[in-house]
């Protein structure tokens, strides 16, 4: 007697959606071709692989997927219709079911891109959890946590905004004001774009994160992208392009940006992809700022207003 085929979790197939699938070939209620069992004698490896694909598809569809309905799709898939794996109860006299629309057939074969993305996300979560060694005082590197939090403040929006405003108020050269005005514009643009993207993507922060950050906005409960990483990349590129610095200081600026990004993962605030994307986004934001560079020529009103103060 053939043993019942099981899904990837080891549960007998057909047990969850329909109790009438016992005996292998039985379909769901009212449908001879409904059967997830697929017939005792037809349990080949090829059939199993179709089923495996199908099971992963169910997972990808979320909790709203109806397994009964999905199994119906499998039994109607081109593979089954070709007749290599006849369904028990589906005799030759029965008319083949009408073909599915193209997009439904595509559903049964998750794309390479989908699989690659899922794998990347799985690696991301695993690696981020491993690297979250300062996520709490009791973590393996818990003693370094205060230092990491100091680094966190060095990349926070508030000190950068206040610092830029203060320097603007003290600046007595036009060239200095122009640069600082653009830095202010860059910082505000960054806050806006990060908040928009965080609100759009709504990726939760890692489970091991303690939400004990200094002064956050409501969107900062989300983690993609890392605002500290965008700021680090944006500000460091800005500084390297507009300040004349000795080589050791330039290296220090780059190191600061890199360690700040890394510290987000070590603190458990972010996953690796949040920080990697944040760096990329901050780097590109600088290009926007550079392209829209504010000067007394293209924003005379802004500079005139400043002059009156
Ligand atoms: C003018 C204005 C709206 C200032 C708000 C500045 C502020 C509170 C920025 C938030 C900075 C922050 C905590 C970002 C979160 O960084 P992640 O790296 O954790 O994403």
UniProtKB/TrEMBL annotation:
Q: Where is this region: Disordered?
A: 1-69, 81-106
Subcellular localization: Endoplasmic reticulum membrane; Nucleus inner membrane
What GO biological process term is on the record, naming one?
A: lipid metabolic process
Pinpoint the Phosphatidic acid phosphatase type 2/haloperoxidase domain residues.
178-290
Annotated TM spans: 179-201, 238-263
* Membrane topology term: Multi-pass membrane protein
What EC designation does it have?
3.6.1.68
The protein's matches in SUPFAM superfamilies, at most eight in alphabetical order, are given as: Acid phosphatase/Vanadium-dependent haloperoxidase
Stretches of Gly residues bias are at 22-41
Name a GO molecular-function annotation. Answer: sphingosine-1-phosphate phosphatase activity
For this record, the Gene Ontology CC terms, alphabetical, are: endoplasmic reticulum membrane; nuclear inner membrane
* Principal subcellular localisation of the protein: endoplasmic reticulum
Highest taxon of the lineage = Eukaryota
> Which Pfam families does the record cross-reference, listed alphabetically?
PAP2
Q: Which UniProt keywords apply?
A: Endoplasmic reticulum, Hydrolase, Lipid metabolism, Membrane, Nucleus, Phosphoprotein, Transmembrane, Transmembrane helix
The UniProt catalytic activity note for this protein reads:
presqualene phosphate + H2O = presqualene alcohol + phosphate; (2E,6E)-farnesyl diphosphate + H2O = (2E,6E)-farnesyl phosphate + phosphate + H(+); 1,2-dihexadecanoyl-sn-glycero-3-phosphate + H2O = 1,2-dihexadecanoyl-sn-glycerol + phosphate; presqualene diphosphate + H2O = presqualene phosphate + phosphate + H(+)
Regarding protein family, the annotation reads: Belongs to the PA-phosphatase related phosphoesterase family.
> Would you tell me the protein name for this molecule?
Polyisoprenoid diphosphate/phosphate phosphohydrolase PLPP6
- Which gene is this protein's source? PLPP6
């Amino acid at each position: 007697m053939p043993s019942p085929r099981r899904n990837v979790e080891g549960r007998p197939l057909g047990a969850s959606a329909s109790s009438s699938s016992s005996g292998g070939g039985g379909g769901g209620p009212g449908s001879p071709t409904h059967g997830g069992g697929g017939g005792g004698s037809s349990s080949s490896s090829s059939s199993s692989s179709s089923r495996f694909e199908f099971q992963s598809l169910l997972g990808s569809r979320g909790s709203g997927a109806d397994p009964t309905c999905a199994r119906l799709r499998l039994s109607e898939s081109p593979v089954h219709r070709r007749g290599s794996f006849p369904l028990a109860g589906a005799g030759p006299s029965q008319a083949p079911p009408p073909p599915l629309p193209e997009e439904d057939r595509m559903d049964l074969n998750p794309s390479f891109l989908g699989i690659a993305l899922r794998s990347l996300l799985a690696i991301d979560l695993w690696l981020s959890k491993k690297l979250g060694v300062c996520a709490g005082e009791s973590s393996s590197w818990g003693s370094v946590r205060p230092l990491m939090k100091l680094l966190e403040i060095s990349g926070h929006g508030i000190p950068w905004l206040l610092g830029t405003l203060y320097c603007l108020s003290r600046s007595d050269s036009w060239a200095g004001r122009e640069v600082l005005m653009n830095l202010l514009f860059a910082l505000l643009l960054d806050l806006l774009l990060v908040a928009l993207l965080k609100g759009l993507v709504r990726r939760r922060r890692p489970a091991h994160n303690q939400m004990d950050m200094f002064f956050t906005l409501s969107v900062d409960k989300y983690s993609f992208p890392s605002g500290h990483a965008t700021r680090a990349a944006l500000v460091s590129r800005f500084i390297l392009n507009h300040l004349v610095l000795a080589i050791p200081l330039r290296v220090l600026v780059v190191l600061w940006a890199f360690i700040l990004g890394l510290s987000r993962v070590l603190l458990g605030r972010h996953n690796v992809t949040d920080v990697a994307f944040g760096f990329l986004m901050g780097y590109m934001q600088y290009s926007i700022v550079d392209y829209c560079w504010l000067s007394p020529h293209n924003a005379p009103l802004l500079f005139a207003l400043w002059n009156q103060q």
